[in-house]
Specification:
heterodimer; A: alpha/beta; Peroxisomal Thiolase, Chain A, domain 1; two-stranded antiparallel sheet; 11 strands; about 30% helix; globular; B: 5-stranded antiparallel sheet
C-alpha cells in the first residue's frame, strides 16, 4: 500500500554541528534552499509549508517568498516533522495543496535567534515537575529508565551498548560530530550526568537544519526528478502524557506502540519487511523502548539485541546509520535528521550506505515520551 | 528555608486545593465519584470516564519508589547530587518528586522501597517531597 505521497526533495544545512554564524531562521532558509535545489524546484513550485513554531511556517514562507495555500505548525517536539510528512500527504490527497515544504532549523548549541526555553510556572509541568530541580531533558527524559531496566532485566552494560553500536555507524559518517569508536568501558568512564546515564548515553547538542519536499507520486512524474522519489508507504501518529511522570507505562511508550502499529498497518508491512530503521535517540534508552514497542524484538530482548551487534554494521537490522542523536547531530528536535538519513539510504546516497534497502522505518519521539510518529518509507511504490 | 531559590510553581484555580493542602501538611489529590478512579495531576474532569463529579481527598501519604535518577549537576537551589524520582502513591497515581532524608546513592535508593510524604517549606509555597518510610520526621 502507499499513501500516494512521495518525498522528492531532501537536504540538510551545508554543515551541522557548531554554527554560531547562523540564526535559527537562517538555518531554516538554508535547508529549504538546499531541498529545493535537490528537487530541482523553485519557491514558486511550493504551495504548502510546515514547520515547528517558532519561527513557524508562516515566517519561513514569508522569508522565502512563498504564498502558501496550506500551513501546518504542529509542534509536538522533535517528532513534529514526521507529523508534518503525514499531514502533508493527507492534505495533498485531499487537494488542499500540491507541493509541501517542511523545514527545520535550530540553533540548539549556539542559541542564535533561538526561542526561549523558559517554562511557564503555571503550566502542569511548571507546577508538578519543575519544582523538583528538573532543568533540562537529561534530568527528565531519563527518569523512567531505571524502572525499564529492572522490569525487563536489561543491564546497564546493555544500555551503554546503544552508544557503542551507534559509534560504529558514525565512524563511517564524515559529517558526524563524534566519530571515534568506543567501548562499554569508555561509556562507563564518561562522567555520570544523571545516574544511570553517563555523558556518552546522552545526545549531542548542536546547530543545524533540514528540509523536505513532499508531493504526490502523480505530480512527481511531471517534475525534474533529480533523484528517484521516496514513497510514503504508511504513517502513524500518537500522543502520551505531557508530563513524563504521567506516561501510561514507564517501561513502554504508548506513542511508539500506537504510531508504529498504525504506520505498519497502512503500509501493509511487518517488521520482517524492514531493511533499515531509524529510532529517535535523545538518550540511550529510547532505541531499547523503540525496538520492543514496535515489535522488532520481544519485551526485555532489546538490550541483548543491540549488544550482540544486530543493529551495528553488518547486522540483520541496521539502525541509526548516521550515528544518531548520540553521535551524528542533535539540534534539540532530531526527527528531521532521522528522516533525512532514511531518504539517503533509500536513494543510495548515505555515507554508510546499505546494499539496496527497499523499506526504511523512522520512529520519531517528541518531548519526554510525550508524542510519537512513525513513517514507513519505500524506494518503490507498493501496490 | 534556604530553599527559596528553587523553582516555585504558580498555582492555578484547578490546582489551588493541592497547594493549599501541601501548605496544611496534607497531600490532597482527586478522585471520581462516578468510577472511583483516583488521579493526578489536578483537573476538573475524570480522565478515565469523563465525569465532572470529582472530589478532593487526603491521601495516606504513603508511596513506593517507581523510578529515579541522581542528578550530578546542580540546579537553582539544588546542590548535586540530588534524586529526582517518580513515586507511585498508595492510591495509585504517580507523581514526580524529590527523595529526601537519605543519601542519594544507588545503594540507598532501591526501587519499590516504601516512602512517605514530607512537606518542604519554600516560603510562599510548600512542596510535597518523599522520604524513606519509618524514619523519624526531621525537625
Amino acid at each position: 500500500m502507499s499513501t500516494g505521497a512521495v518525498i522528492i526533495g531532501a537536504a540538510e544545512t551545508d554543515r551541522v554541528g557548531k554554527l554560531p554564524g547562523h540564526s535559527t531562521l537562517m538555518l531554516h532558509l538554508e535547508a529549504a534552499h538546499n531541498a529545493l535545489a535537490d528537487a530541482g524546484l523553485s519557491v514558486h513550485d511550493i504551495d504548502g509549508v510546515a514547520g515547528v513554531s517558532a519561527p513557524g511556517p508562516l515566517a519561513v514562507a514569508h522569508a522565502l517568498g512563498i504564498t502558501p495555500a496550506w500551513l501546518d505548525s504542529t509542534s509536538v517536539g522533535g517528532t513534529s516533522f514526521l507529523f508534518h510528512v503525514r499531514h502533508a500527504a493527507a492534505a495533498i490527497a485531499a487537494g488542499l495543496c500540491t507541493t509541501v515544504l517542511i523545514t527545520h532549523g535550530e540553533s540548539g548549541r549556539s542559541r542564535v535567534g533561538a526561542p526561549s526555553y523558559t517554562r511557564d510556572p503555571g503550566s502542569m509541568p511548571g507546577q508538578f515537575e519543575a519544582p523538583y530541580g528538573i532543568i533540562s531533558p537529561p534530568t527528565m527524559f531519563t527518569v523512567p529508565a531505571l524502572r525499564y531496566l529492572k522490569d525487563t532485566g536489561t543491564t546497564q552494560e546493555q544500555l551503554a551498548s546503544v552508544a557503542v553500536a551507534q559509534r560504529r555507524w558514525s565512524a563511517r559518517n564524515p559529517r558526524a560530530m563524534f566519530r571515534e569508536e568506543i567501548t562499554v568501558d569508555d561509556v562507563f568512564a564518561s562522567p555520570i550526568i544523571a545516574y544511570p546515564f553517563h555523558l556518552l548515553e546522552c545526545c549531542l547538542v548542536t546547530d543545524g537544519g533540514g528540509a523536505l519536499i513532499v508531493t504526490s507520486a502523480e505530480r512527481a512524474r511531471d517534475l525534474p526528478q533529480r533523484h528517484r522519489p521516496v514513497h510514503l508507504l504508511g504513517a502513524g501518529e500518537a500522543s502520551d502524557a505531557p508530563l513524563v511522570s504521567q506516561m501510561e507505562d514507564l517501561t513502554s511508550s504508548r506513542g511508539f506502540r500506537l504510531s508504529s502499529a498504525a504506520a505498519f498497518e497502512e503500509a501493509r508491512i511487518s517488521v520482517d519487511d524492514v531493511d533499515h530503521l531509524m529510532i529517535y535517540d535523545a538518550f540511550a534508552h529510547l532505541p531499547l523502548y523503540g525496538l520492543e514497542d514496535m515489535g522488532f524484538v520481544k519485551r526485555g530482548e532489546a538490550g541483548a539485541f543491540i549488544a550482540e551487534g544486530h543493529t551495528s554494521p553488518g547486522g540483520s537490522l541496521p539502525m541509526n546509520t548516521n550515528g544518531g542523536g548520540l553521535s551524528y547531530t542533535h539540534t534539540g528536535m532530531y526527527g528531521m535528521f532521522a528522516i533525512q538519513e532514511a531518504v539517503r539510504q533509500l536513494r543510495g546516497e548515505a555515507a554508510a550506505q546499505l546494499p539496496d534497502p527497499k523499506v526504511s522505518v523512522v520512529l520519531g519521539n517528541g518531548g519526554m515520551f510525550m508524542a510519537a510518529a512513525t513513517l514507513v518509507l519505500g524506494s518503490d511504490a507498493v501496490d | 528555608m534556604s530553599a527559596s531559590t528553587k523553582a516555585l510553581p504558580t498555582p492555578t484555580p484547578e490546582t489551588a486545593p493541592y497547594w493549599e493542602g501541601a501548605r496544611a501538611g496534607e497531600l490532597r489529590i482527586q478522585r471520581c465519584r462516578a468510577c472511583t478512579q483516583a488521579y493526578f495531576y489536578p483537573r476538573p474532569y475524570c480522565p478515565q470516564c469523563g465525569s465532572a463529579d470529582v472530589e478532593w481527598f487526603v491521601t495516606s501519604g504513603r508511596a513506593t519508589l517507581a523510578s529515579y535518577i541522581i542528578s550530578e549537576r546542580a540546579a537553582p537551589g539544588f546542590d548535586a547530587p540530588y534524586a529526582i524520582a517518580i513515586v507511585e502513591l498508595e492510591e495509585g497515581p504517580r507523581m514526580m518528586t524529590n527523595i529526601v532524608e537519605v543519601e542519594p546513592t544507588p545503594e540507598r535508593l532501591v526501587l519499590d522501597m516504601a516512602l512517605e510524604v514530607r512537606f518542604e517549606d519554600r516560603g510562599e509555597i510548600t512542596v510535597p517531597v518523599f522520604a524513606p518510610a519509618g524514619q523519624a520526621v526531621e525537625a
